[in-house]
Design goal:
Its EC number is 2.7.1.49, 2.7.4.7. The structure is a single chain. By secondary structure, this protein is of the alpha+beta class. The chain has two domains: 63 residues, no CATH class; 63 residues, no CATH class. Helix content is 39%, strand content 11%. It contains four helices and three strands. The protein has a three-stranded antiparallel β-sheet, with helices on both faces. Strand 2 and strand 3 form a beta hairpin. The longest helix is centred in the C-terminal third of the chain and has 17 residues.
Amino acid sequence: MPEAAALLDAPHARTEQEMLEQGRSLLAMGCGAVLMKGGHLDDEQSPDWLFTREGEQRFTAARIMTQNTHGTGCTLSAALAALRPRHTNWADTVQEAKSWLSSALAQADTLEVGHGIGPVHHFHAWW
């Protein structure tokens, strides 16, 4: 959400309602689709919102308690880019990418690499 705030020259969204307003504003600027991530909100669930010309859709996932969250935004965007050709719409693409990322976060603590905030487990399905 800091990225959305920077693009809009607005304060950082601190609530889900502010996320909605910023997502709609970005879509109105001419974007084909906007995904607002709610991982930085202080809720039990991590709500994300997809905005397209066809409508808005809310995605939720249980918040996974791990300090290994380094690169989650980049990881999600890479997953979206990789999965987009498999689906005919953004909603299915986002759902699959979020499901994969949730599993990668859930397995992140098994990596035991580095010090401090570590990465998600990108290869959790294989090792």
